[in-house]
């Protein structure tokens, strides 16, 4: 009788161990998939960061060029005003108006 009980206990323990092994294998597979997905997402994020950095640099260069162009336009308008005293006031007024309108949409840093 004890031998039968021992055998049943051993069979139950074996079945339980097999079930836990399958459960562990399932969890391990899920963990591997999650790790692979995380690695892929990290690579995509790093690529996006590099891409954004390129755009940031390009935007800063464009900003510097626009500030330089604005300053050049201001200098040119001042020069034209000095050279054309009494002549072409309508065109100078219009250029001055356009320049003032552009200033409205520029930040203080751009105007400095």
From TrEMBL:
Task: Quote the biased-composition stretches of kind Polar residues, using this chain's numbering.
Answer: 8-17
Q: List the biased-composition ranges (Basic and acidic residues).
A: 22-52
Task: Report the superkingdom from the record.
Answer: Eukaryota
Region Disordered: start-end pairs = 1-52
Recorded protein name is Uncharacterized protein
Q: Which organism is it from?
A: Mucochytrium quahogii
The opening ranks of the lineage are: Eukaryota, Sar, Stramenopiles, Bigyra, Labyrinthulomycetes
